């Protein structure tokens, strides 16, 4: 997603970040406001290609039965992060069905209920490829998937460490990105199909 950063990293009272995030959300309805590494980012509503790739992504998860039994497949659910008052709102997530019992604050949920988070990149792709990698690893999110529209690749990161992932698989068009069984079902993502849905130039995507 596209995002503009509002620098508040040196704020001595972290609660002010949440207050500022709340103010921005009220002023900009429909925008996605997150705090990653003590910095507020503001993303406008997704464009058609971004929304289309998310819809295409949900289909294999739903077909595999991951929604409604032990897990739910959800867009835009808040994830509370371990650093200060940081939080993220992943584009897509697979969460345990008892997530409501693990609400922390600011309409965000404990990382323990997240089996997978997924981001679809836009102009601020570095945030998804760098800052959120660190944030999600610190939170112990077991699987982080990035649909990287800028480089026409799909990234699957697993085995979180202190501030990075031990395994980082990169898939190109023509390949199937296999997700770990820990998500709750056998899932393979068609890289070319997803990138085309995401509006990647046709000369960068085969298949």
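^ structure tokens above, recovered residues below v
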């Amino acid at each position: 997603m596209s995002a503009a950063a509002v620098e508040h990293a040196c704020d001595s009272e972290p609660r002010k970040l949440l207050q500022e995030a709340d103010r921005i959300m009220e002023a900009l309805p429909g925008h996605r406001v997150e705090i990653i590494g003590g910095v507020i980012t503001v993303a406008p509503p997704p464009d058609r290609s971004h929304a289309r790739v998310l819809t295409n992504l949900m289909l294999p998860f739903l077909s595999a039965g991951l929604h409604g039994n032990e897990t739910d497949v959800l867009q835009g659910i808040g994830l509370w992060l371990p650093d200060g008052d940081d939080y993220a709102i992943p584009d897509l997530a697979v969460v345990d069905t008892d997530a409501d019992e693990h609400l922390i604050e600011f309409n965000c949920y404990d990382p323990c209920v997240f089996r997978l988070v997924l981001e679809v990149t836009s102009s601020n792709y570095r945030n998804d490829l760098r800052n959120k990698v660190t944030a999600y690893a610190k939170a112990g999110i077991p699987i982080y998937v990035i649909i990287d529209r800028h480089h026409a690749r799909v990234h699957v990161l697993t085995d979180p460490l202190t501030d990075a992932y031990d395994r980082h698989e990169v898939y190109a068009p023509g390949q199937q990105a296999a997700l770990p069984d820990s998500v709750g079902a056998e899932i393979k993502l068609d890289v070319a199909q997803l990138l085309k849905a995401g509006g990647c130039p046709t000369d960068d995507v085969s298949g």
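The radius of gyration is 16 Å.
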